[in-house]
Amino acid sequence: MGSGKSHVGKKLSARLNIPFIDLDDYIVRQEQKSINQIFQEKGEAGFRQIEKQCLINTGKMPNVIIGCGGGTPCFFNNMEWMNENGATYYLNYPVEILFHRLKTRKSRRPLIKDMDDSTLFSFINQKLNERSKYYLKAQYQFTPDKNGKEAVDVIEAWVLNSQK
User: If I label 95, which of 2, 34, 71, 112 is the partner at 20 to 30 A Cα–Cα?
Assistant: First the structure.
């Protein structure tokens, strides 16, 4: 959350003329329910099953950029599946940058909207500690500049080089 996956994905999509799919948006369209509704009705386990199937469905599409949720790589064998079926990129921002980005945008994110700054910082740190072992399995990883422009440039270069 806050790493700029959607921002970078959309910019790459425009530059490379490749469709961008936000996995959460795809899930909402397929299920015709919000992510929150799915969680309420089916729990996290039910949501993760749907997420896995939607990941596989989008992964079968030719030449797409998929922005997955922060938890996607951490369940089932999703990270391994993504590595086997495409290129994976981890935007490895430090906690401090993610905190700075998210604290001003809390109202747009139901999961964190009621957190004070201290709780938010701890939450981000905890999630990164829990999930980093999965994220670090990405084929490409780097710490981009603060505004994310470098991320678009670097990933575009990696994509173009891999097509040669």
Answer: 34
